UniProtKB/TrEMBL annotation:
ATP-binding recorded as keyword: yes
Lineage, uppermost ranks: Bacteria, Pseudomonadati, Pseudomonadota, Alphaproteobacteria, Hyphomicrobiales
Swiss-Prot/TrEMBL keywords: ATP-binding, Nucleotide-binding, Transport
Annotated source species: Stappia albiluteola
Gene Ontology process terms (BP): quaternary ammonium group transport
Entry's family note: Belongs to the ABC transporter superfamily.
Molecular function terms from GO: ATP binding; ATP hydrolysis activity; transmembrane transporter activity
Protein name stated in the entry: ABC transporter ATP-binding protein
SMART domains: AAA (SM00382)
GO CC entries: ATP-binding cassette (ABC) transporter complex
Pfam families: ABC_tran, TOBE_2
Amino acid sequence: MSGLDLIDISKRFGQVSAVDSVTLSVPHGTFVCLLGPSGCGKTTLLRMIAGLEEPSSGELRMDGDRLNDIPAHRRDFGMVFQSLALFPHLSVGENIAYPLRIRGRSAAEQAARVKDLLDLVHLPGVADRAISQLSGGQRQRVAIARALAVSPRLFLLDEPLSALDAKLREAMQVELRQLQQQLGITTIVVTHDQREAMSMSDLIVVMSKGRIQQMAKPVDMYRRPANAFVADFLGQANLIRARAGVGGAAISGGVIPGLALPSGGGTLISVRPEDIAFVAGADGPVRARVGFIRDMGASVEFHLDAGEDRIVAVATPQARPDCRVGEEVSLSIPAEACVVFGEGEG
Ligand code: ATP
């Protein structure tokens, strides 16, 4: 037995089912992102792991030992909230040393640990500064250092980077991941940002309406989403209605050669924008009209009307197809790039 186990955990607030029968294992040293839209229950799940909320039913275990009855302050977990919750009247060093002070550690030990932690989060020499003298990114690092002060068994973060601007946020994603790898600390991060989840995690857990929709490595989840919700939430997805046709799958704008579908009713398929290819000439398997072109510098997005479907295709500037808004184009959708969902999963 190793790591954290959640076994059939549920949480109800009156009539609201915030978390519904979640079972999840987090092995030691793993970085897990709980990802989902607002209200899906990810914060409630993290708070139950931290001991700040009591499950309505189910069991939490750490290394095989039941956690449910152990109060938050005795779980030895480090936590960083969105608000950071730093003490504004204490210096940087006093903030970081706080968990050590309340555990009665000596002044010398506190000072040495503060120095090490500030080095670790790339903020050397700021122990005596006031919190108000720090930038948002620096405060973030102080909150992380404070949460790591007592070498927690589990590191829990709730939307830790959401207050930062886009550029700093991306830089901190890399830093947080490097720090986690350096320390080998088991980490669970709540986020609603799919890019953040993709770029940091060993394992992503996508939640919707209190339930786990899929749990997988980022690339596996991106390539093989379990259902339309996951396909759409993690990156961009073209969700297209298709049915069995001659030599492949028939879609509104043409055919996907070689994609075998069960005969009968329509099926929903998902295909990523970068997998859609432009074909020279007018006789490609899918015909579409260019509705909108969105040039983002590093990539170009084409919004295409293929029969009744609006399909998004992405190209690099180097491989940019020569077409304009209003023109007809030919496309090819490779069968192997399509993920086929059952009827109920649409
Ligand atoms: P967000 O990203 O907006 O924080 P979330 O995915 O973290 O959302 P939760 O905060 O866990 O979602 O909330 C899940 C559901 O439980 C929501 O419907 C919410 O309104 C409800 N809820 C959460 N905490 C309480 C509470 N203390 N009392 C009543 N309902 C609550």
